[in-house]
Amino acid sequence: MPGITREEVAHLARLSRLELQAEELDHFAEQLDVIIGAVARVSEVAGQDVPPTSHPLPLSNVMRADEVRQSLTPEQALSGAPASEDQRFRVPQILGED
Question: What structural domains does the chain harbor?
């Protein structure tokens, strides 16, 4: 398998808008060659009878059921705030907004 060339890395760097030094081009060319080789080996192992998956085991979301519960009062929620106004947190003005 031909390795990735220094020129290909330079092209990828230009497309990515990365400025790479000469020694970095050689270093990344070696690393990308190893990565491409590893992907090729995985592709060889996967047979036609193995479906593509993102995880080896099935995943399921573990969510609790929504329950209506007592929440904080506005006074309790604002009790630790450095400043409040009209039952809301008061924060410094930003971006010249009113």
Answer: 6-45 (1.10.20)
Phi first, then psi: what are they for 78, rounded to 5°? -90, 0
Q: Which two tokens stand for residue 33?
A: 């060659």
DSSP state of 86: T
Per-residue pLDDT of the chain (98 residues; tens, 9 = 90+): 468 899 999 999 999 999 999 999 999 999 999 999 888 887 777 677 777 778 878 888 888 888 999 999 999 999 999 999 999 999 988 887 66
**pTM beyond cutoff 0.70:** no
C-alpha atoms less than 13 angstroms from C-alpha of 11 in its C-beta half-sphere: 5
Cβ(37)–Cβ(1) under 8 Å? yes
